[in-house]
Specification:
The longest helix is centred in the C-terminal third of the chain and has 21 residues, at about 150-170. The protein has helices at about 1-10, 40-55, 60-75, 80-95, 100-110, 110-125, 135-145, 150-170. About 35% of the residues are buried. Helix 2 (about 40-55) crosses helix 4 (about 80-95), helix 2 runs parallel beside helix 6 (about 110-125) and helix 3 packs across helix 4 (about 80-95). The chain is about 70% helix and about 0% strand. It is mainly alpha-helical and about 170 residues long. The protein has a single domain, classed as TerB-like, CATH 1.10.3680.10. The protein is built from 8 helices and no strands.
Length: about 170
Amino acid sequence: MLDEIRKLFAGRMVPNAPGPEPSPAPSSEPGDAAPAGPSPVQLAACALMLELAHADQEFSESEQRQIEGALVRHFVLDSQTAQNLVRLAEEERRQAIDHFQFTRLIHESYDLGQKMVLAEVLWGVALADETLAEHESYLLRKIAYLLQLEPGYLNQARRSAAESRKKPDAAS
């Protein structure tokens, strides 16, 4: 029975709609074509970003811009593909019963450096609306625990995200 439940969740992580197969990794060459669709890992990472953005019961425009910008930068997606990924991930997030299905996939796919970058991106989402709600902080610690990131790494990611937010303001 446990195997059947796993199959159910594994099947939900890949879009069910007919269309192009998800690409395993984005292309980083400027002349290459854009990936056909999001990979399950991209979908999982985006779903965690959205879960964090919704943690304070308010999904602000600044959080949406932060998420879409992170998807464009880190997954080398164009703006339209990033918006489509957000829509797909929102559906997955709403249907998920917990965060484990997303964090398990990321934990199995990402090395420590990639998990650190994701933690920094998640902190960027949490700080995007300039208010850190208690539940956002709790959720970040929970996700870090599920990704097996030590608290020191999470604190380092928070500092990096906060510094990144200050840099554009200094240039203005």
